[in-house]
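Supplementary Methods. Inverse-folding protocol.

Structures were first reduced to a discrete structure-token string of length 498. This string, shown here, constituted the complete conditioning input.
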């Protein structure tokens, strides 16, 4: 059955438009990964308006290609420049750059590319095998289960994102508040629109995301005095790892693939957490942990496999439950909703061409990345020399065109600038934007499930604890929130005792 669906998917993926979109996506994604300070969220936000003019399947293939392509490209900058091109590649700097300093940049780049390909392929197989059975289970979910599940997802994300739980909760609540702007879905009464007609349909997600990620990123980089990167002057040779390198790396790649996939499924897990946990795991089980940080190849192979595997895992909650687990997936979900496609338990059954075409395109995209990545390394090295003063006007041009082209509205441009300044200030004060975006995307679903549940129970809140699945999700959410608050309470109690 799965094989038949996959054949159907390759039929979709091999269509000329989809094949070209896949190629463009992975190429742009690799470039975004190579360039420090942009990231896949900002890149996808900038290119999102393009997808409104093309077929939804083609658009999603391209945007997903940017996401997993950025995971490949981020390692190049980490190894050669010691600057993570993408947040998930921070750990790769530790051993990757040390390998480059020892003249082993080639094997480091090679194992990164091959490890990413293996992990990416494993995660796609996992996506194929897990998504359909999980969708059949999710069909049984009602509004109370969805409300509790969204609560669990938001609290998990808040706990795993950033250093301050208090700031995470504040950003999540702010995102929920913004999602309530516009017409009430039940009564049709305008809410929080300050008498402005532009807010009658709510806040547009495109100007919001472009401002928070695109504009704020530019402002932060200009403030930091971004210039061309200093490339390590070493000859890149031996891109194909030797037998000894493979012996040392294969275990790390295998463990990183499984860890990354499982963490990608969890709300808030994602690529960053996967790479950190993979590195910590490899260091803990190593016979020579003291070598980590001095240029050991396992310290490159494990994290790079983990962050690529997490990408495939993160698509499971989106396609099966309609719940995004990180910012990039939230933006992709926003794109689907704007196309009139609602991800959820019936998504695979209702849109088989889109799901299986998307899965098949990920196989093709991973193969393209392996073929492209190694030969294009000299080109990426030259790209890294481009000063930021040349890049940032181009980024600004993209976000302005992208925001304006959706509704041809000057109000959207003003909204984008407001959110851009807001994002810059929030990031300066160490407030994470991920809880805000995810709460904004999930807000309507949370409200709808909550109100439908109360209608079902005739106003009784007991419905959320009377149904077993809903009760379990709420208990997990409560325990997670409690576990994050306990250390702070203990600290204050200790201070009072003194």
């Amino acid at each position: 059955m799965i094989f038949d669906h996959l054949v159907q998917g390759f039929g979709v993926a091999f269509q000329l438009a989809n094949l070209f979109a896949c190629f463009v996506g992975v190429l742009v994604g690799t470039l975004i990964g190579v360039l420090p300070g942009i990231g896949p969220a900002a890149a996808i936000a900038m290119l999102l308006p393009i997808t409104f003019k093309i077929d939804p399947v083609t658009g999603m293939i391209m945007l997903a290609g940017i996401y997993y392509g950025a995971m490949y490209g981020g390692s190049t900058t980490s190894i050669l420049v010691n600057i993570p091109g993408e947040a998930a590649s921070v750990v790769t700097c530790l051993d990757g750059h040390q390998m480059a300093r020892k003249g082993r940049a080639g094997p480091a780049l090679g194992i990164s590319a091959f490890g990413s390909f293996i992990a990416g392929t494993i995660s796609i197989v996992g996506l194929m095998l897990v998504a359909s059975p999980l969708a059949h289970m999710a069909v049984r979910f009602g509004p109370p289960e969805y409300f509790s599940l969204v609560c669990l997802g938001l609290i998990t994300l808040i706990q795993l994102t950033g250093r301050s739980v208090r700031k995470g909760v504040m950003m999540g609540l702010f995102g929920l508040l913004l999602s309530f702007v516009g017409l009430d879905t039940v009564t049709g009464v305008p809410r929080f629109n300050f008498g402005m007609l532009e807010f009658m349909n709510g806040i547009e997600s495109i100007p919001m995301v472009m401002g928070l990620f695109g504009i704020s990123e530019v402002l932060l980089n200009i403030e930091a005095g971004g210039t061309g990167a200093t490339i390590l002057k070493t000859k890149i040779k031996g891109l194909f790892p030797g037998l000894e390198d493979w012996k040392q790396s294969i275990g790390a790649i295998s463990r990183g693939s499984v860890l990354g996939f499982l963490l990608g499924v969890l709300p808030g897990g994602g690529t960053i957490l996967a790479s950190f946990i993979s590195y910590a795991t490899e260091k803990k089980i190593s016979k020579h942990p003291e070598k980590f940080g001095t240029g050991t190849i396992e310290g490159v192979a494990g994290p790079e496999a983990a962050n690529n595997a997490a990408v495939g895992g993160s698509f499971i909650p989106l396609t099966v439950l309609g719940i995004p687990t990180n910012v990039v997936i939230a933006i992709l979900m926003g794109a689907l909703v704007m196309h009139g496609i609602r991800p959820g338990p019936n998504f695979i059954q209702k849109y088989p061409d889109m799901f299986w075409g998307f899965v098949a395109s990920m196989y093709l995209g991973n193969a393209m990345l392996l073929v492209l990545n190694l030969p294009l390394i000299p080109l990426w090295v030259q790209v890294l020399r481009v000063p930021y003063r040349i890049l940032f006007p181009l980024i600004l041009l993209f976000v302005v065109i992208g925001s304006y082209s959706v509704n041809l509205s000057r109000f959207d441009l003003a909204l984008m600038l407001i959110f851009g300044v807001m994002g810059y200030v929030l990031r300066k004060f160490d407030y994470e934007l991920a809880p805000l975006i995810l709460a904004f995307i999930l807000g309507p679903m949370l409200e709808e499930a909550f109100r439908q549940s109360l209608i079902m129970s005739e106003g009784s809140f007991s419905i959320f604890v009377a149904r077993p699945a809903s009760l379990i999700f709420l208990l997990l959410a409560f325990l997670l929130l409690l576990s994050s608050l306990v250390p702070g309470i203990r600290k204050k109690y200790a201070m009072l005792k003194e």
